[in-house]
Amino acid sequence: MQNSLEKIRHSASHLLAMAVLEKFPEAKLAIGPVIENGFYYDFDVPIKLSNEILPALEKRMRELAKKNISFERFEAETEEANKIIIGQPYKKELLAEIIKDHKPIIFYRSANFIDLCGGPHVQSTKEIDLNAFKLLSVAGAYWRGDEKKQQLQRIYGVAFATKEELDSYLTQQAEALKRDHRKIGQELDLFTFSDLVGSGLPLYTPRGTVIVTEIVNLLNSLKRAKGYEFVDIPHLGKVQLYKISGHWDKYKDSIFRVHGHGDEFVLKPMNCPHHSQIYASRPKSWRDLPVRYAEVTKQYRDEQAGELLGLSRVRSITIDDTHIYCRPDQILDEMRGAYEIIRDFSKVFGLEYSISLSVRDPKHKQDYLGPDAFWDETESLLKKLLKSIGEEYAVGLGEASFYAPKIDFIQRDSLGRHWQLSTIQLDYVQPDRFKLEYTDEKGHKVRPAMIHIAVAGSLERFLSILLEHYSGNLPTWLSPVQVQIIPVGARHEEACKKLLKEFTLSNIRSEVDALNETVGNKIRKAIKMKIPYLLVIGDKEAKSKKLHIRIRGEDKVRILTKSAFLSKLSKEITERKSVLLN
Fold first, then answer.
1. DSSP tag of 556
2. What would the pLDDT profile of 416-467 be if each residue is shown by its tens digit?
3. What is the reported pLDDT for 582?
């Protein structure tokens, strides 16, 4: 089914190109690949396109599809290929690369439209449901993703096998738009961006910092229970560090460079090389292993401005990172412990997950570091772990990192979207490149295995997912303000401040809204800020031993004694789940 969808989506991108060329015969074609849920095509046209043009293009695509146009694949020699793409400079550049790489030159013909394309495509447009695709938006895109090159206009579309699947997707997207974390983040005053600081560099407000701190506290408590130790590393490192690790050759175009008075430094794009140097700082015996270093720290990527998106894609990335150095006989137990942390962490947030075993592509061994023996052994051990814990998994061929295979956990949110957050990597390459060692029982110097673990991954991205997952209605333990106390009038403020002090002593985050506003306005503000519990204190409430509690999402006011409320609330926060509503 997935292969069939890929063909439908790729073919829809060609229908789009046909429709655009009919309207703009002078248009220059770039690329039109399949992406998640759909496709896009990049065009160089003389006028600025807007979303208003999409219905007309979509209508023409349907008219073309009704003609049952076939997609005919054929190969061409260099001379013929150059004639076909006359007047198409972007295709000419792509053709030059194909020729240089000695690859076959493949075209697809659809009626009078011919495109340089590797496929695959449907046999005929009769395989495309006319009501199961839709054009979504127009956006700018630089040719080859390079800001120094021509800016093109990209038209995005989605396509599915049936109209029902399209409708379901559009409904999900409409709900996701309402839950956009950027909108929620602004409404709840959680984070901001500044042009003076720079794009892609989020600034957390006090409220946002509370949320991040709570997530970090949860991560640290889970890791501490497994015997992990915490370290702290600088944000800089010498270029040579990343040349040894291999990250420089792989990511040098996205690494921030810092020039000092002598050595050339970079803002660290990864943390594992630094952690390896902590390991290497003292001799290790087999009795010292495993060594487990955990840290929540920042790393940096020089992402292109057009790829930045709220907290989802940033340049400063707060990452929860753990690296374990262990003996061969400890590998499975250590990876099992990491799996248990990821499992328990996901459960706290109600995130179900599936698992993918990401391995290297044996047809492209040149893209990976280390000998075959390393890869064969590490992939085998990851499979053994998954079998031992009884988890089903898919295999992601070619999805391994350049130095190690990994187990990827793909979490599913309340909107049914899938996110790859957590990962466990088993690595022999980094210890070998850094010449890490320990002394075994026989006095020999041997290399340790290295396990890389991320649980939440990027905390920025994780927070963006959480805000949309909960639609901003964060569970009480995560809420920046857990109880809002509202005095009816100035004479009730003293009673409110007394309550505030009691809640604070019970480690409950509370605020008193003493502004000179109406009670109704204060309640509306607290509801908009999605605060879990509201207490309105007037004459009756100030004298009573019971609290009148407004619970987020409920119309009915609950009445509880202060001690009962504090007890239930403290339990809810400590156990990180709702107990008041049970």
1. S
2. 889 999 999 999 999 999 999 999 999 999 999 999 999 999 999 999 999 9
3. 36
Number of alpha carbons in the 13 Å side-chain half-sphere of residue 486 = 22
Beta pairing class for 38-44 and 34-35? antiparallel
- Long-range contacts of range 554-563, CB-CB < 8 Å, 24 or more positions apart? 562/499, 562/502
Q: What is the pLDDT of residue 312?
A: 93
The rounded distance, in Å, linking the Cα atoms of 474 and 480 is: 9
Q: The tokens of 567 are what?
A: 């007890």
Tokens encoding 497: 């401040």
Does the pLDDT at position 503 exceed 90?
yes
Phi-psi region of 99 (alpha: psi -120 to 50; beta: other; left: phi over 0): alpha
Indicate the residue type of 581.
L
Which tokens is 535 given? 């207490």
> pTM score, two decimals?
0.83
Tokens matching residue 24: 């703009």
What the block records as the tokens of 563 is 């001690």
Tell me the HSE value of 150 on the side-chain side, using a 13 A CA sphere. Answer: 13
Residue 559 CA to residue 569 CA, distance in Å, equals 14
Question: Can you tell me the distance from the alpha carbon of 437 to that of 391, in angstroms, rounded to the nearest whole number?
Answer: 33
In the chain, the domains with their CATH numbers are 2-163 (3.30.980.10), 186-233+269-469 (3.30.930.10), 483-575 (3.40.50.800)
Q: Which residue do the tokens 């709570």 mark?
A: 214
